[in-house]
Fold this protein.
Amino acid sequence: MELSTLFFAFVLIGAFSVGLLLAWLVLRLLTRRTTAQVVEVRTIAEKVSAVGKLVGLEVCAKEIATAKSGWPWCPPVLLSQAKMAMIFHFEKQYAVDLTTVRPQHVRRSADGKYHVRLPEIHGSLRLVDVSPYDIQQGRMLGLLDVIPMNAERQAQLMRSAQVEASRLFEEHERRYVAQAREAIERQLTSLLGLFGIDVEWEWADEQVEIDSPETRPGTPMLALTG
């Protein structure tokens, strides 16, 4: 009885394996008969606007993000996990918008020196380039793809990478802003120096920090962003 049961189990496993092999062969034959691939690219200009930003600092970062899908407890021989690794290139520019400078932001002292109050520096994070590093489909018995890595999974991985990149830049935000201020002051001073104009620069956010009251120890400060 036990031998017949064992023999029947081997027959079922063999039939299942042969069926998967036949399905894999059929898929390979169908994919080979496909026509030539046609790539269609459409370019859309969503927004065109004039800006007066002066970039003081540009920081570039490269990040490798990996995502897996499947059952890790299952042996890879039976069912492998789907894996996707992509390389993201981020760029963050720290710039000041000179279009917001008004006549009331400029004053002249008795010695003839100008004092200009510049707006605060804003940083904009951009995803510059994405390149796939390793993409593996989840396969059963190493033959049949059962867990695909689709576009939705790629978008999810991209969002996770952007969140991680934002956290990385926030850790060094103060240092980057300080370097951007120095670079902007140096550029503007060099430009106006060609006309013999002596200017001393002030920053709006520095004035806010000076005027703001000191917080008591242990009292958290909450910042709401719209």
Q: What stands out?
A: The CA atoms of residues 26 and 32 lie 10 Å apart. DSSP finds four helices and eight strands in the chain.
